[in-house]
Design a protein that fits this description.
The protein has about 400 residues and is of the alpha/beta class. The protein is built from twelve helices and 21 strands. Among the domains are: about 160 residues, FAD/NAD(P)-binding domain (3-Layer(bba) Sandwich), CATH 3.50.50; about 90 residues, no CATH class.
Length: about 400
């Protein structure tokens, strides 16, 4: 075929549907699961949707992306929410980001946080450090670092943090000391809203319904239960665990690069560098209890909880109850037996380790020359949200259609 697409998650489904809209018919999507959607799949648990990959929502900011997706699930099937995310600091729920909402804490805590932020290296002119943990202290001050950022990141990304780089930290909300001080004095938030200030979520389904509809629109062009195991760059050939072989003019891979058990035709140095890429696995778990909060999700840095995030299902998924949690599998206590529904995602978050940008630049640049294109969260090993993944997939498909 002309196009072979590996993975039927948001990236692969968007690329395939965009090809179809341009009149292309010579393409096939290989998917290892029995259902499309990737990390954005949903299941029915306790009579309501449960998003097995954790908290996935559709951001409102990219109108072109949303209009593309509304062709599959119309706007009238979505609810629009203004984001309410909070941080559990001890027994107090504080608005997110913490540095913008210190005013919600007790007056003594506010004073200690303000002193710590004022003495942070970013405010005193100290040189910016290169190591992740040092950077957090430098940027936000020791109190925010020790009581929130470092314990939360250990729970989410792993117990050893200093192999993370600092190049990705520009994503953190940039709130100045003056804005923090004003927020405490006037008791309201200053600064810019973080991402997902508003988001869409389906009225009657889980988020996975969107991707099921996209898969149905290219019915006959998806082969399920086809886990990819081998890739030959010289032949542009893929072999699956079923021993089936496929060749194409262009291969679009949206699956993790470490899923290829055998690679032919790739320089040794580039192949070895793939082994340096790191990721986390998470377990999502359902809890039937109703939480007394209006928050949509809650970040949990405290070590008294194994999980790092709570998704309060009954606040954004109509006619549902309970909540679900995300827990890094490093922190799961296997001796704790629970009867509630759980799902383990082997590939949850690509990690921004030191040297990763250089590894991916070499890998993606070389593979493109061989007609193989990495795309999306796993094809590019970037922590993209689904709306960003859709945007990149649309742009790549459009380039081929030119």
């Amino acid at each position: 075929m002309k196009y072979l697409i590996l993975g039927a998650g948001p990236a692969g489904l968007t690329f395939a549907n965009r090809l179809k809209q341009a009149g292309e018919t010579s393409f096939l999507v290989l998917e290892r699961e029995e259902e499309a959607g990737g990390l954005c799949r949903s299941a029915e648990v306790d009579g309501a949707p449960f998003d097995i990959g954790g908290g996935h929502f559709l951001d409102v900011r990219d109108s072109q992306v949303n209009q593309f997706l509304f062709d599959f699930m119309p706007l009238e099937e979505w609810n629009l929410y203004t984001r309410d995310s909070r941080i559990l600091m001890g027994e107090t729920l504080v608005g997110h980001p913490l540095e913008d909402n210190i005013w919600q804490l007790g007056i003594e805590d506010q004073v200690e946080y303000l002193k710590s932020v004022a003495l942070a290296g970013s405010n005193t002119g100290a040189k910016m450090p290169e190591k992740f943990m040092d950077w957090i202290h430098w940027k936000l001050g020791s109190k925010i670092a020790e009581e929130y950022m470092l314990p939360y990141n250990r729970k989410m990304f792993g117990k050893e943090l200093n192999w993370l780089g600092t190049y990705w930290l520009k994503k953190l909300p940039d709130v100045s000391f003056e804005e923090i001080l004003l927020s405490c004095l006037k008791r309201r938030a200053y600064g810019k809203q973080p991402g997902h200030a508003q988001f869409y979520y389906p009225k009657n389904y889980g988020y996975g319904e969107l991707w099921i509809r996209m898969a149905n629109s290219i019915q006959g062009h998806i082969a399920y239960h086809n886990a990819v195991k081998k890739i030959d760059f010289d032949k542009k050939e893929i072999e699956t665990e079923n021993k089936e072989k496929y060749r194409a003019d262009h291969i679009i891979t949206t699956i993790p690069w470490m899923e290829f058990e055998e690679v032919t035709g790739m320089p040794y140095e580039i192949a070895c560098s793939i082994e340096e890429l790191r990721f986390t696995s998470i377990q999502t778990a359902y809890h039937p209890e109703k939480l007394n909060t209006d928050a949509h999700w809650i970040y949990c840095p405290g070590e008294e909880y194994l999980y790092h995030r709570i998704l309060v299902r009954h606040n954004f998924c109509p006619s549902s109850k309970g909540y679900w949690t995300e827990t890094n599998t490093e922190w799961i206590d296997t001796d704790m037996a629970e009867d509630n529904f759980k799902y383990t995602n082997q590939y949850a978050y690509p990690l921004n380790t030191i040297g990763k940008p250089e590894i991916m630049e070499r890998l993606l640049s070389w593979s493109r020359k061989k007609g193989v294109y990495g795309l999306g969260r796993w094809g590019e090993h970037q922590h993209y949200n689904s709306d960003v993944t859709v945007r990149l997939s649309m742009e790549l498909a459009d380039k081929f259609a030119e």
